[in-house]
Specification:
CATH class of the largest domain: Mainly Alpha
CATH architecture of the largest domain: Orthogonal Bundle
Strand order of the largest sheet: 1-2
Shape: flat
Distance between the termini: 57 Å
Number of helices: 16
CATH topology of the largest domain: MetI-like fold
Helix content: over 70%
CATH superfamily of the largest domain: MetI-like
Radius of gyration: 31 Å
Strand content: under 5%
Length: about 450
């Protein structure tokens, strides 16, 4: 029995319990639903919850712990020669057994012991899935029967259902919070290991980035050069170019759509503009590498400028196009949120439409526009694919937009590509870069939220 089939069965039982509960509640009062404490749908939901929640909880716990339990059983049943292998080789053997059981490629020729272990693993999986199906099915039936036996006209079904829904919402919120805490802790713990190998001052203020291992001790990268200044300089350069492109286009398009365009034009132009937000970033990267970068290079050669085949200018131009919908859509919402009374008062005093926009609407909407600008900046700072394809991997400390540069996110991807050992400073540097980038984007978002709060306090 597959877990998918089990989920379908439990959902079907819950739906059946809902209709049975609703019908039972109506039958208890002979159709006079006013005599019930809650509406019949709440009684049905009460039974459905008792069918679904305990069964899904058991199934979730089973699916979480079953793989580890079955793997330990299979490993413990291996021959003594295999069980006494070093931990790394035993882990590789365990992976091969799992791959063999799943029908995937293994790292070596399967011997009889591996084949037997894979067959045993499949047997335990089959038995475990069958037992899970029986147990979950029985729990769902028992929960539904228990809930049905408690039905009465005075049962506060609505209160209990709403309490269950509130607990579910709290659990969802806690999952988001715990996930955020886990991400931050993972970055902090690995960054502490990195700073045990590399000085914090060298990382924050160093001007050379060369994390590779050199062949000779007299080379620069013998112990690695982990100065993050070139990476953040490249990130800021590309982000600045993107903002110079996106801010005027996004703001002017928002002004046009909110105050000048007719309703028909707005209904067509706004969705077309926001299509840019749905294009995958890898497509933007292809566009930058195959179209924009060659055009920038040819234009530079025509003007007598030395332009690299991969330049910050090409990446910044395409990234600016990518973040136009962020600025445009948010600015349009902020401009439309300005009270109509401000517009009417300006027109009543004899101001023209352009004067009303520049002297009344934009000053009133400026905090919200600034918040949209900061959110767009944080989106640009975290972009990777466009930079990889259009700006290159060279960690150059330069302000020349015609040269190749790289960004923090690109280096994180580069450091973690392939099989890596998380003991070297080279790999741990990715976590330190991630932590620093997280702090930067967090600061930008905090500033944006502060501006939005200030805007609401002033105009609401």
């Amino acid at each position: 029995m597959s877990p998918t089939f089990l989920i379908i069965v439990l959902i079907a039982l819950s739906v059946f319990g809902y209709y049975c509960g609703r019908a039972r509640a109506t039958a208890m009062v002979s159709g006079r639903v006013r005599e019930l404490h809650s509406r019949p749908s709440y009684y049905g939901s009460y039974i459905a919850l008792w069918c679904a929640v305990p069964a899904f909880a058991v199934a979730a716990g089973w699916l979480i712990f079953q793989p580890a339990i079955t793997a330990n059983i299979v490993v413990s049943s291996l021959p003594e020669a295999l069980k006494n292998l070093p931990p790394d080789r035993l882990g590789l053997l365990s992976n091969d057994i799992h791959n063999l059981a799943d029908g995937n490629i293994v790292s070596r020729t399967a011997d009889p012991a591996m084949i037997a272990a894979a067959d045993q693993l499949n047997y335990y999986r089959s038995v475990g899935n069958s037992a899970l199906f029986v147990i979950a099915f029985v729990i769902a039936i028992a929960g539904g029967s228990y809930a049905r036996s408690r039905l009465s006209p005075t049962l506060r079904a609505r209160n209990q259902v709403e309490t269950a829904v509130r607990c579910f919402l709290i659990a969802c919120s806690l999952i988001a919070i715990v996930t955020t805490i886990g991400i931050v802790l993972s970055l902090i713990l690995e960054s502490i290991r990195f700073f045990g190998k590399v000085s914090v001052l060298e990382f924050l203020f160093g001007t050379e980035w060369s994390p590779q291992t050199a062949l000779r001790k007299d080379q620069v990268g013998a112990s690695g050069a982990f100065g993050a200044i070139p990476l953040f300089a490249g990130t800021l350069l590309i982000t600045a170019i993107a903002v110079i492109v996106a801010l005027p286009i996004g703001l002017f398009s928002a002004i046009y759509l909110s105050d000048y365009a007719s309703q028909r034009v707005r209904s067509i132009a706004k969705p077309l503009l926001e299509i840019l937000a749905g294009i995958p970033t890898v497509v933007y990267g292809f566009f930058a590498a195959l179209t924009v970068a060659p055009y920038v290079r040819e234009l530079g050669n025509t003007l007598g400028l030395d332009v690299a085949s991969e330049s910050a200018l090409a990446a910044g131009l395409v990234m600016g196009i990518m973040i136009i919908p962020v600025i445009s859509s948010l600015s349009d919402d902020v401009i439309n949120a300005v009270p109509q009374s401000l517009r009417d008062g300006s027109y009543a005093l004899g101001a023209t439409q352009s004067e009303t926009i520049t002297k009344v609407i934009l000053p009133a909407a400026l905090p919200g526009i600034f918040a949209a600008f900061l959110l767009a900046v944080s989106r640009a700072i975290g972009e990777t694919m466009i930079v990889v394809m259009a700006a290159g991997l060279a960690a150059n400390l330069t302000a020349n937009p015609f040269e190749a540069v790289t960004t923090v996110t690109v280096q994180i991807v580069t450091l973690l590509v392939g099989d890596q050992e998380f003991d070297s400073a080279k790999t741990l540097a990715a976590f330190a870069l991630g932590l620093l980038l997280f702090c930067v984007t967090l600061a930008v978002n905090i500033v944006a939220l502060h501006v939005v709060r200030k805007y609401r306090e002033q105009y609401e």
